[in-house]
Amino acid sequence: MRIFPTLLSVMLLLFTCQFSAIALADTTDSAQAEPAPHIDAGRELAKMQVILDKIKGQVSGSTPDVTLSQLNDMAQDLSDNANTLAQSLQPQSQKIDAQLAVLGPAPAPGSGVKETADVTSKRRILGEQKKTLDNQIKQATALKNGALNLSAQILNLRRDQLRTQLALNSGSILSATFWQPLYDSNSFDQEKLERFGQELLDTAALSWSPDARIGTIFWVLAAILVMYPGRRYAEEFLAWVSIHKMPEGRLRRSFLATAIALTTLLAIVLSFNFIALAFTRNETAGDDVQEYVSRLVQLSIICGLIAGLGRAFLSTRRPTWRLANISNGVANALKPFPTLIALMVCIFQAMESFNYTVGTSVSTTIFGNGLTALVIGLFAVMIVIRINRTRRRIQNDDTPAETRSTLAGVIELSLFLAGVSILVALLIGYVTFGRFLSYEVVWIGILLSSFYLLTRLTTDSCEAIFSTGNACGQRVQSTLDIDERYLYQIASLLSALLKSFLVLLLIFALLNGTISSTSPTEMLQKAIAFWGGKGLEKLNIVPSQVVTAVIPLVAGIYVLRAVRRWLDQDFLPKTEMDKGMQVSIITLFTNVGYVLVILLALSVMGVQWNKLAWIVSALSVGIGFGLQEIVKNFISGLILLTERPVKVGDLVGISGYEGDIRRINVRATEIQLSDKSTVIVPNSQLISQNVRNATMGNAEGVVTIPLVFPLDIDPVKVKDILLGVYQDNERILETPAPSVSFKDLSAQGISLSVTGNVATQRQISSVKSELLFEILVRLRHSDVPLSSPQTMVIEQKKESSIPGPTE
């Protein structure tokens, strides 16, 4: 299997030596101004093409990783040789161009200009040579590009094979095979490591040469100054700004925490860049070294975020300024972990980048991944254990227990379970899965910490800017000339918009980012893949897409509930909308939001709506048979929420029931009766039937009491009594004034009706009761009786039983 690549290597080596000798001879002869020897470029190009075809044939078969690496080296050497050949042919082509320029163009027919046969023959020969050289240069360029493309394909093939092998069970970390690269590395890895190590040493030696030594010392000192005194003094200055320049309130704490995180991040990134400039600023540094150092500089961003966010949240130097609810004991116990985690991530990611740049074998790569996962898994478990141990020690010291929120408990439990899962995966042999979990733990921790910090900073900034309690808010109020209430509304709305944007960024980063994808190009490619969707494609749903769709579904529902809670408790109460309008807006927003969240989850799953014609047909049949009532009530509910003929809080009467509307749901409306019972009315009935809305348009209530008095009363006196009762009641409106109407005069008595207005319909019953009590008391006090109902008594006379006189 390895004989053919060896023969190819020997052939390519001999060809390289032969071509190098020819090129060297050409250079020497040119320097001595002697005629250059003839190079048979056509034969050399034919040999190159044969080698390229043989490499392609070898790659297309089932080839191990070591052979692929050798073939990749051969393809790169072939590309270099083709490029050298093309460059060596360029001077000959330029020389022929100069000779043709001396000869000039051929005379046009009929111009009368004649030239000798020697000149014509010379121009023709030079033209043929020029054409041949141009074709050879084009062929050499094509060979160079073909070899480069083949090298890229070989690298992709190696990565695919590596990914496939890493996804399998590679053996437990307790086995001797896992630790073999430490004591018995194969010759393939050893050769590559030694070669790249020598390149690093040569680069370091080059940076310490007499000409570059001063610059190297300068950049190293700059890195040290930025990392230690620069970072410390920057934090002190920002702390002074937060105390003396920031308005009083929570913004000071969130600003200082953000400042600590950013200064730490900036110091680490600048230090890495300065050290990179110190050793690789020379243009003679190799491409592999430049790529490796570039990866380390990108890695410094992750390390800076870990260290900076950890220092910002623990805030051991300023405990009273700590954002999170963490006790001093727990914060001091966790103090070394952010720096240690950042250091370990830096070391092991640098080792993985080293393996990637060198192109080591699978066993060495697995070893590096396993060490990375092992360290991070141990740190995850140790952090939770140390937190719990510190809390128990604090409780034993009779110190007040720390008030831990439910979210903090969930985070600690998740971290502990993730650490245990990483260690279990390493023990049973799934090293790559353990490495994936370890970096996901770090990445999710960075994202959640950044989200919490930025959310607090956003909320506090909006409140400080638009608060009339400080100079900034007062200046905004005087400039815009608006009421203080509107300033609070603007602050709430702006804070909600910014937090929504941060939530979207968080979801996007959770779905598309990993700790190793710090390149903007990779993030853009993942963004396109995330938002594009691949569709069902004949209902070929991939399980990974289903799992991926769960994340935006859960996140969308959480965000929807949070926004609904914010509208209900924070924003809408600050507006002048009535309660019914607020409830209608919240309900409509919730219904539309759930639909959008479901559509988003289906889109992430890969559902394409043009592939779901059969689902639409099935829904049409279902609506035609069994779902028409549900759809009708749903549409009626939307009409009620938008047109608002009735709204939450209205007093309505329908189908013999009268009560207050408490909620308008998707299918039905809840009406609470006076006895506190609830009637569920389908929404379609509120649209299709006659509905009495007693409170529509804020209608006033009318209290009317009919009374019947005897015929012998004084009507003027009774009228004064009734009007006095209405006028003395505080809830009877003065405008329109109460009135007494003469309704009827009959044998039963005089019928009077007294009327007065109250503020709302809901006061009619209670006010009527109060008025009746007062009317009866005053009538009796004035000896004015009410007419009693007349009863008809029919008496039947009995016939006498005494006999009359006899004749």
From TrEMBL:
Domain Mechanosensitive ion channel MscS: 630-695
Regions crossing the membrane: 216-234, 255-280, 292-314, 334-351, 366-385, 406-430, 436-454, 486-511, 541-563, 583-606
Protein keywords: Cell membrane, Membrane, Signal, Transmembrane, Transmembrane helix
Signal peptide: 1-25
Membrane topology of this protein: Multi-pass membrane protein
Domain DUF3772 positions: 137-198
Domain Mechanosensitive ion channel transmembrane helices 2/3, first and last residues per copy: 587-628
Localization: Cell membrane
Gene3D superfamilies: 1.10.287.1260, 2.30.30.60, 3.30.70.100
Domain of life: Bacteria
InterPro entries listed in its UniProt record: DUF3772 (IPR022249), LSM_dom_sf (IPR010920), MS_channel_1st (IPR049142), MscS-like_channel (IPR052702), MscS_beta-dom_sf (IPR023408), MscS_channel_2nd (IPR006685), MscS_channel_C_sf (IPR011066), MscS_channel_TM-2 (IPR011014)
Record carries keyword Transmembrane: yes
Pfam entry (one): DUF3772
Family: Belongs to the MscS (TC 1.A.23) family.
PANTHER family: MINICONDUCTANCE MECHANOSENSITIVE CHANNEL MSCM (PTHR30347:SF9), POTASSIUM CHANNEL RELATED (PTHR30347)
The protein's name: DUF3772 domain-containing protein
Organism: Tatumella terrea
